[in-house]
Amino acid sequence: MSVLVLVLAVSAACCLGFGFVLQQNAAQRAPLGDFLSLRLLADLMRMPRWLGGTALMVAGMGLGAAALGQGELSLVEPLLATNLLFALTLSRRQTRQPLGRQGWAGLALLAGGVTAFVVAGEPAGGHAVTDPVRHWLIIGGMLALALLLTGCARRVRLTLGPVLLAVAAGTLYGVQDALTRVSGQRFADGGFAALMSGWQPYAVLVLGVTALVLVQSAFETAPLRMSLPALTAAQPLAGIVCGVGILGDRLRTDAGSLGWEAGGLAAIVLGVLLLGLHPAMPPGTQRPKPGASELELLP
């Protein structure tokens, strides 16, 4: 792993983590009637804190794209998952909660899981898969999963809805990262004309806006501890699937390596959950329980 990729990916994670906290601080004040609507973004654009968080998020995505241009998707995605460490750092300043055993355990699991996966898997670049059927099967499966989760979230918006929306958004961000890598390769091979002649950059934009609406709707309806862990865990899993299935990223596949890779991913997910559920994460504004007031918001 090159130092440049490490610096770019961790810097991206830092910007994303800080940005998510600032966005959720603002989104929790948005009206519930904006749920899963572009009106939500219009309302949030009036809030300076949300604009600051979005600027950090855009910077994080730019740094992540630069990291993807220098390293494999299967390497960069686990490093981006460390954004939760930075989110927790900012949240601790807001809530003044100590880390405690849960926080230290989450940090150890997340850091150890990333290290175990990268060392055991030794992600390396390969030849991109050229079979369009395989591309669309993987991308279509991811999009179908996100659509299904979003549909279910509409029915349980104030209970499990934020978690489902966060998983859907993380899935879309994983696909977006893969298409960002493809767009970078097209630009490197043929310049701006080659980049804009493909469908990938336009898909990156659509996926980004769609995922943003999903994330802000999740932030709007529940505390950060309910949505950010699911988002942080889903993105690298979806990205690794796309990296191996579409971009041809190679991981070691002997029995021992596969065991460590699976254990590393499991540790990442568990560490993300422990950190996301930590008391230092801002609890957000209490929303009314589902009832007559919520039924009035249903289309």
From TrEMBL:
Signal peptide stretch: none
Q: Could you tell me which species this protein originates from? A: Streptomyces thermospinosisporus
Can you say what this protein is called? DMT family transporter
Lineage of this protein's species?
Bacteria, Bacillati, Actinomycetota, Actinomycetes, Kitasatosporales
Q: Which keywords does this Swiss-Prot/TrEMBL entry list?
A: Membrane, Transmembrane, Transmembrane helix
Where are the bilayer-spanning segments? 50-69, 103-121, 133-153, 160-179, 199-219, 226-246, 258-277
